[in-house]
Amino acid sequence: MTTMAASPAGLLTREDLDRMPDDGNRYELIEGEIVVSAAPILAHQVAAARLVITLAAACPDQLEVLHAPVDVVLGEHTVVQPDVLVLDPAATDDRGLNGPPLLAVEVLSPSTRGRDLGQKKRVYEQAGVAAYWVVDVAGDEVALTAWELRDGTFAAAAAIAGDETWTAAVPFDVTVVPARLRR
Predict the structure, then answer these.
(1) Please, are residues 138 and 108 in contact by the beta-carbon 8 Å criterion?
(2) Residues 127, 74: contact at Cβ < 8 Å?
(3) For residue 50, what is the enclosing H or E element?
(4) Each residue of 77-87: pLDDT tens digit?
(5) Which domain of life is it from (predicted)?
(6) Cα distance between residue 156 and residue 18, in whole Å
(7) What are the chain's domains?
(8) Are the beta carbons of 31 and 11 closer than 8 angstroms?
(9) CA-to-CA distance for 178 and 161, rounded, in angstroms?
């Protein structure tokens, strides 16, 4: 992961983000800084894909489950691409989602772990994302940690691993088993 600092004139904007090359990297704008991430490892992609399938099977018709890359505009200086997200299609345009998703999911990787658990969690919380999940595929067992927004602050909702089961209520009722997110 590489970070491009803000220009002397101030924080970078979506216009700056739009000038990034189409080179196979993922570019996000987080609090005015461009963050570049290389292509994820296979375990990351498998977990994200299987989570999309799980969520889509339970998703109400009026919502959508998508996977990266989808631009999520959280402000003039923040445009992120969660690995998996649930959104209301009414809040989208041709370029992506304008405002917070109902659920943002990040699959942790060594290069993004600190940012996903720190800065991104804070940014999602401040933007009003209803639920934030992180999936960790690095250990012997896949783990999932979830937070739900309560009174403007993320509160712990679940911390499960392996064959443990959790049924989320936000953004809709869905049962997740972390072990099923690994092949």
Answers:
(1) yes
(2) yes
(3) helix 42-58
(4) 999 999 999 99
(5) Bacteria
(6) 35
(7) 40-181 (3.90.1570.10)
(8) yes
(9) 6
